[in-house]
Fold Cyclin N-terminal domain-containing protein.
Amino acid sequence: MHFAQSRVDSLSTVSESIMSVLTGYDDDAFGKASAASSIFTTPVQASRFFDFEPATPVRPRFPSDSEHIHMTREMAIRKKEDGQDEAMFSCVEYFSDIIKCSMQRQMRDHPSPNYQNQVNEEMRTILIDWFHDIVKEYSLKQETFHLACNLVDRLLSILNVDKNRFQLLGATCLMIAAKFEEVFPPEIREFSIITDNTYEVDEILQMEKFILAQLDFDVALPTAAWFAASFGKRMKFNERMTKTMRYMVDLSLLDVHFLRYRPSDIAAAAACFANVQWGKEAWPKEMIEDTGIDTDDFVDALKDLHHMYITAPTSEYKSIFNKYCETDEMNVALLFAPTY
């Protein structure tokens, strides 16, 4: 009982300290750059946590710690890509129950698109675009990207976030998501480096305590990326269709108005988009039976995704578009949009 009370007192103290920072403070005391006045960037000189020195031909050398981390991390990623731990997506017996349970969980603490605080829609879009640069730079998973965005949106729904501390909150959310999803997340100091050392490690750790207390340590909820992955596996998407679907759910993160849709509906719309683009049945009857999602449930989300796909090349924030224009992503962002 004494331990529990001490933990509550500790969290309360952290919450009071950070809340004063988020809701208002003396600008001279902090002097941090506003998210509204600059686009977040990853410093070119930032060290990668898996960088290592090349082997010398002079004498044999055992792998360094960073080499070992890099090799082990690559093995873990390759294992996931080989599908060795994705059995639940292909398990016919349990697929329907897993999806229905996740569809119930997705609306728990679902963020609102109508939040009222100092952070406006453009600032949020800038942060998401910056997130994607970091995710690509550090080779993080798509689910890490989506979970970080979900954490930010949930906090914007319940807190009056000061715009001058928005990047700190965002970097900390990305760190929490990486800890939760990655086998080998970047070290904490890397999240200070990506802000160009604007925020120290201690500030990030203090913000992490505050965020987890605000969320009652309930971090992970099903995202559009998770539903899209499960739908694609169920419909046996080929690689190009899978990349198209991944591109569509990533694009949805840039527009705050997509928060009015359920993540499962965004994923279904993205899957439907990929099916139509490649001449498949838009939304098979089997998917309706397995998921309980009908086309009427996601038709509005599909229209909005179609609009995002068409306007992405002319958008000011092109990190996601540029990635899916690359050969590694099979240039899916450059294909003609399907007609309905």
